[in-house]
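Now for today's protein:

——
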Amino acid sequence: MTKRAEFLAARKGRRLNGPFFFVEALRRDDGGRPRFGLTVTRKVGNAVERNRIRRRLREAIRLSAEADMVPGIDYVIVARRDVLTAPFDTLSQELRRRFARMAGPNEKTAPGGEGRAERRSRSD
């Protein structure tokens, strides 16, 4: 993803929090290849550190997490400073875990939690 409008649209989707980053994911409903974008704010560090974080995340996605991305979904990964010092294996596992949650049974749950009430009523 390269356009600001695509990043802003992903904010309306589901948000998956984690210790090193959070992922905003929005279903495009076109069944196309999954796309991702990276955001590293200036609060995280200087340009060298922000670029190193982006490189680490891109490589973790390329090597291990790309297979777990769901087709037809845009992912925006908003990094925290801890990505710099996290072991690469741990970083890869966290990415895979977040992407796998999008493929889980409650992927259509709205960010506001509308699906939670439906689950409770079915189990009663």
Summary: The radius of gyration is 15 Å. Strands lie at 14-17, 21-27, 35-39, 73-79. The mean pLDDT is 84.
